[in-house]
Design a protein that fits this description.
About 35% of the residues lie in helices and about 15% in strands. It is built from 13 helices and 12 strands.
């Protein structure tokens, strides 16, 4: 599917330059139509709750195919924090290393259960070399996001994997701010654990998330909230004993049906896209904005590798965000910065409209 064909699936883009996918994307027609149909069936009484309930399993299989793993290694959860908390509860005692400026869903679950080394940003930037320097023989796990939400920094996951291997630590990777826009290479990263909340770049409704556990780590998984979904299919409803599933399904949570119905539609949409083409498109637009904005005095908050998220520093973030919204541009103000995210549905006109605001002289960096 071309970027133009993809763009036509998003009605919001007829009136809005949507650069706020790091916060939330607009709804795609196939996703919203699937959810509208579910609501209609609910309203008329034509619903089949067994089919609704099976949506999480269908989404698990689609997600596993998308990233190249076996469905038996994937847990179906409701959020990134559930995934992190599940692993935090499953780990042996030891030190956890995480960036101090990490999104709280990938920070607080570790703080709640373990001794955490929070690596501070240097000059406003989370640096791979600082994370590496914090790792030692007492480290049980390094938790990182491939693309950081606050900075738009793309971390070198293979380099981090190499170091965790050297010190005998495990690696937890959060792909919430990258998967769907950037390619993922499982052979290069080989995470012990991988988590994604699908409501950003994967275009899912909020409430559909996945935790992937490497096969040799499955035996140590402890469900955060054991329920009727913690057993192997067919799931029973009443009485005991509690026999947990042998695979990652033991950590499934009871599904919010509409979230998973929408997730299935979103993941099927991604099957029609070429991951390499999507990444090139997103990075090309991000590069164009970053380079042209530099000419107007706006600079990225980080100097590291470019991601599809461009975060520009400014002393007037709220005013700039308001001015952008006047021109129909959706972006997010974050204190001393404004964040822009480029998906496959964005185009060069979106970049030009944004640059027209940055260069009109009304707001300086």
């Amino acid at each position: 599917m071309s970027p133009e064909d993809f763009r036509r699936l998003f009605p919001a883009l007829r009136s809005t330059v949507w650069l706020d996918t790091p916060g939330v994307p607009p709804g795609a027609d196939p996703v919203t139509e699937a959810m509208h149909q579910a609501v209609s069936d609910w309203s008329t009484g034509e619903l089949d709750w067994h089919a609704w309930d099976a949506a999480a399993a269908r989404a698990r299989a689609l997600f596993a195919r998308l990233i190249g793993v076996e469905p038996a290694t994937v847990s179906a959860l409701g959020s990134l924090s559930e995934a992190a908390a599940t692993i935090a509860a499953s780990l042996p005692p030891g030190r956890i290393v995480v960036a101090a400026e990490e999104f709280r869903s990938n920070l607080f679950p570790w703080l709640a259960r373990h001794d955490v080394v929070a690596v501070p940003a240097r000059d406003g930037e989370t640096r791979v070399e600082d994370l590496i320097a914090a790792l030692d023989d007492d480290t049980v796990l390094l938790a990182v996001s491939e693309v950081t939400s606050r900075e738009g920094q793309r971390l070198d996951l293979p380099a981090l994997r190499e170091t965790t291997d050297r010190v005998g630590a495990r690696l937890f990777v959060n792909l919430t701010q990258s998967l769907g826009a950037l390619r993922y290479d499982p052979a290069a990263v080989r995470p012990d654990y991988l988590a994604v909340h699908g409501y950003k770049w994967l275009l899912c409704p909020r409430g559909a998330a996945w935790l992937v556990t490497r096969p040799d780590r499955l035996g140590g998984l402890t469900p955060l909230a054991p329920s009727w979904k913690s057993t192997s299919p067919p799931h029973g409803y009443f009485g005991g004993p509690m026999r947990l599933a042998d695979d990652a399904g033991r950590c499934d949570t009871s599904p919010a049906w509409f979230s998973w119905i929408g997730a299935c539609a979103a993941l099927r949409l991604f099957r029609s896209l070429d991951a390499g083409r999507v990444e090139r498109h997103c990075l090309d637009l991000a590069r164009q904005l970053a380079e042209e904005a530099r000419g107007a005095g706006f600079r990225r908050v980080v100097n590291g590798p470019l991601s599809q998220i461009v975060v520009l520093r400014t002393d007037h973030a709220d005013r700039l965000s308001a001015r952008l919204r006047e021109r129909g541009v959706r972006a997010t103000a974050l204190g001393d910065r404004v964040r822009f995210g480029f998906h496959y549905f964005n185009n060069e006109d979106d970049v030009r409209t944004t640059l027209s605001v940055l260069t009109d002289g009304r707001i300086t960096p």
